[in-house]
Task: inverse folding
């Protein structure tokens, strides 16, 4: 196994970093990069600004530049440790995670079906995974795909005898789009969660205390789904005309990777919340009310508009926020960390 180049590994020169054991970098709840360090019985969250100030680390030195790289790395991975390799997104533009074989198959089928529909004169974009997998083994479809490869080679000026070039281009594009299909699965889970929230909204329709909270969560959930729907629709639209995509392979690959990285950054933080919503029974229960509160605490800073979030914070501080909603915002129970509570060092 080859050893990563030194400039691709998280290393520091200052002796402060050499003394740390078990420390790691992550994003805070406010999406700020911090270094988590055990101090006695407590865990301290050290901001990069505080570290540079306390240890006189100038902005134009290697350690400061590495902290900048770590901050960028945390857009793609949840945790970075000293000695880790930087994510591939920063060094090669590849992804630091892998799609499944199923996602690869779906991506390839999507492109081949685009090519077949182009051949008929009515190009159609199919993104439903189940529909794509159902046609994968159809002999008639395979025959049409083979003819579509030949016709595309002619249309692209390659000649029918060079249809393998089209096959290779499609395989390369499907490799890139397989990551998008993996992210589409997370998006589908968010839509299922939002559907369950709407169902709970109806169940709690006559309980004013809880309904105030559920209404807020439902509105934020709708906004989240709307933003992700728009992002996937834009990506699908940009890659929806197959011949145009094949003519502009380099530009399209770059676009797909940029969209992939943006979606991955926005979706990877959902893992814990979606795990809690999986297998939820849509019914009136104390557990579901607690889950609604946690969901509000996750969604509000991410999907509430800035002016709404500012007003919400002001109302909370002045005591004018609704009682149930105020408990949802102010009554957040901090996650227990090994070794004690989290301290913040600015």
Result:
């Amino acid at each position: 196994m080859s050893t990563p180049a030194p400039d691709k590994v998280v290393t520091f020169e200052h002796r402060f970093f050499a003394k740390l054991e078990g420390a790691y970098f992550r994003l805070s709840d406010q999406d700020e990069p911090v270094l988590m360090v055990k101090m006695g019985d407590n865990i301290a969250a050290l901001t990069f600004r505080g570290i540079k100030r306390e240890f006189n680390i100038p902005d134009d030195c290697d350690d400061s530049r590495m902290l900048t790289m770590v901050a960028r790395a945390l857009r793609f991975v949840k945790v970075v440790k000293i000695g880790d390799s930087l994510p591939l997104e920063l060094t090669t533009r590849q992804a630091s995670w892998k799609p499944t074989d199923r996602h690869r198959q779906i991506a390839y089928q999507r492109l081949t079906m685009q090519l077949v529909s182009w051949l008929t004169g009515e190009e159609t974009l199919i993104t439903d995974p189940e529909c794509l997998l159902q046609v994968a083994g159809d002999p008639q479809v395979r025959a049409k795909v083979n003819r579509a490869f030949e016709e595309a080679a002619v249309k692209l000026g390659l000649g029918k005898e060079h249809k393998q070039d089209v096959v290779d281009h499609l395989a390369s594009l499907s490799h890139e789009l397989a990551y998008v299909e993996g992210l589409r699965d997370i998006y589908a889970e968010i839509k299922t969660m939002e559907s369950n929230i709407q169902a709970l909204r109806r169940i709690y329709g006559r309980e004013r205390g809880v309904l105030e909270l559920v209404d807020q969560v439902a509105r934020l959930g709708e906004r989240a789904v709307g933003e992700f729907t728009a992002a996937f629709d834009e990506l699908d639209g940009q890659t929806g005309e197959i011949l145009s995509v094949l003519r502009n392979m380099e530009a399209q690959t770059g676009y797909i990777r940029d969209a992939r990285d943006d979606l991955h950054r926005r979706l990877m933080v959902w893992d814990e919340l979606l795990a809690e919503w999986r297998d939820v029974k849509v019914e009136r229960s104390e557990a579901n009310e607690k889950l609604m509160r946690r969901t509000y605490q996750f969604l509000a800073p991410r999907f509430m508009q800035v002016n709404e979030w500012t007003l919400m914070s002001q109302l909370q501080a002045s005591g004018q926020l609704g009682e149930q909603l105020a408990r949802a915002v102010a009554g957040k129970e901090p996650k227990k960390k090994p070794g004690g509570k989290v301290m913040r060092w600015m």
In short: The first helix runs from residue 15 to 18. The first strand starts at residue 24 and ends at 27. The chain has a mean pLDDT of 85. The two ends are 40 Å apart (CA to CA).
